[in-house]
Input
Amino acid sequence: MRSHRHSVILLLLVCLLASSALAAPMHPVHAPHAMVASVHELASRAGIEMMQAGGNAIDAAVATGFALAVVHPQAGNIGGGGFMLIRMADSTTHFIDFREKAPAAATANMYLDSSGNVIENASLVGYKAIGVPGSVAGLAYALKTYGKLALPQVMAPAIKLARDGYPLAWEDAEDLRDNDLAKFPESRRIFQRNGSYFQQGEILRQPELARTLERIAKNPDEFYHGLMAREIATAVQKGGGLITADDLAQYAVKERKPIRGTYREYDVISAPPPSSGGIALIEALNILEGYELAKFGNRSAEAVHLTAEAFRRAFFDRAEFLGDPDFATIPVAQLIGKRYAAGWRETIDPAHASTSKDLQRPAVFNELERYARTHAPTTTIREPENTTHYSVVDGSGNAVAVTTTLNDTLGSRVTLEGLGFLLNDEMDDFSSKQGVPNAYGLIQGPANAIGPGKRPLSAMTPTVVLKDGKLFLVLGSPGGPTIITTVANILMGVVDFGLDIQESVNAPRFHHQWLPDELRLEAGMSPDTVKLLQNKGHKIQMEHSWGDGECIAVDPKTSERLGASDGRNNGKPVGF
Ligand code: GLY
Output
C-alpha cells in the first residue's frame, strides 16, 4: 500500500487532482447467492470456487486466505497472523484470533541499544522482528471447526497459483522493488530475480511456496510440530532471530468473544483485544450516536469535525488501556458503554477542535480514571499501514470477515530458504520504548509492552453489521491505525448518509488518532470543507489515499450480495 504525504501548500492541487487520481468503480458487483471481496481477483475466485463446489463461507475464506499468500505477498501470508470474524446464518458468532506471539526469549527492551535508544529498524526488518506466525494454525482451525470441505481441496487453488504462477500487476511489480527485500538473498532471488526486477504482466512462479503449501495441505500441524517447524526454527535462529521449535509448538489459536455494540438501529460485531479495533470503533460510534449527522450531510465540515473528535477520544483511550487481554486487564465494558460515550460527548465543542494534549476523561468515570492512574507513563509505537482484508458471504447467509497481516508491506522481508514464504515483522506492533513518539506518532500504554508469549496490539477491525437482526454489512480494511477510522467511515457512509457500499468505500476518508494532533484528510475532500475544518482549529494533513476497503453489503429487500472492492487498489469482488 502506498501512502504519500503531501504538504498543506499542495492542498488545492491535490483536491483538484482527486477525482482523476482515484479511478474507483462506480457500482458494487451484484450477485444473487455469494460474494468474495479481496485485494486480488484470483484470490476472490479461489473463494468462489469453494462455494460453487458446495463449501460454505468459511471454506471460501480459507481458500482466499491461502491464495492471498501467493498472489499478494505484500500482506497475504502464511508467515503472519490475523483475525477471522464469523457470523453464521443461525446468528452465532465466532472470533478466531491467530495473531502472532512474541517468542519466549523476547524481552521488553530487546529493541533498545545500551544507551536505551531504539535501534533503528530492529523491530521492522530482519530475523529479530519476526513473531511466531499464527496464520496456518488459524486457517486450518477455522476450516476444521466451521468449514465443510477438506484442506487439500481448499488449498488447491493456492497451490496451483504458486506452481503455475500469475501475472503481476504494475503495483505488485513496483512493491517487489523494495530495497529491504534485497537485503535477504532468498527474498531477492524469488521476488526480485536477483536484481532483474519483474515487470508488469510477467509471471511470478513460486515453486518452493507451492511445495510448502502442499505439505501444509497434507498436515498443517507440521508447521508447528513437525519437520517444517524445525526447519523454520533453525533458519530463523541462523539469521539471528529468537523463534524456537518450542515457540512454534506452544502456539495456540484462541477463540474469543467478539465485541458487540449498537449504532442507531444497527448491531455492530467486531474484533476484541488483542485488537483495539472493535473497542475503538464502538466507542467512537457510541459518541457519534448523540448527533444527527445525516442532517449536516456526508463529508460536511460539521459531520467530519464531530466524527474526528470522537476518533480523537477513542484513540486516547486506545493508547491507555489496550493490549493482549491474556496479560492485561482491559476495562472493556466501560469503554464501550453508552454512558461513557455520553460523558465524552459533553467534552466536544461543535465549533472548535479540542487539543489532544489537554484531553481529560469525563470526571464521572472514576473507575476508568483510577485504572488509568495505576499505569506508568505512556509508551509509543510505530504502526505500518499495511495488511489485507477480505469479506465473504455465502448462499446461506454465513458471513466471514478476515483481516490478516505481515505488518509492513512484505513483513520482515525474510524468506526462509527452501520454504518460499515471507515472515512477518509483527514484533513492531509492540511498544518498543516508553515515551518516544514514533513515525506515526501513535502512543500506547504498558499494556502493550513486549513480553514472552504475548500478542502485540493490533488495529485490525473485521466487522459485521446487522440491520433488524439480519446480516447487512461485512467490512474491513488494511491501514494500521487508519483501519479503525476507515471501517467507521465506510459503516457511517452507508448508515448515516445512505451511500451504497461502493460509494461508501470510494468516499474520501478522514482520520484522527489523538496524537499527532492532526486531522488527516484524503484527496477528494472538498476545499471548502477543508477550509471550514481549519477555521474550527484542526491542523490538516492532506494525503493522497490510504486503506483498501474490501466489503460486502446484503440488500435487505432482495438479499442480493453487493461486493465493493476499493478503487484505491486492484481488488475485485467476485460473486455468483
Ligand atoms: N499490523 C497491523 C495491525 O495489526 O494492526
User: Anything to note?
Assistant: The longest helix spans residues 301-321. Residues 1-22, 375-382 have pLDDT under 50 and may be disordered. The longest strand covers residues 81-87.
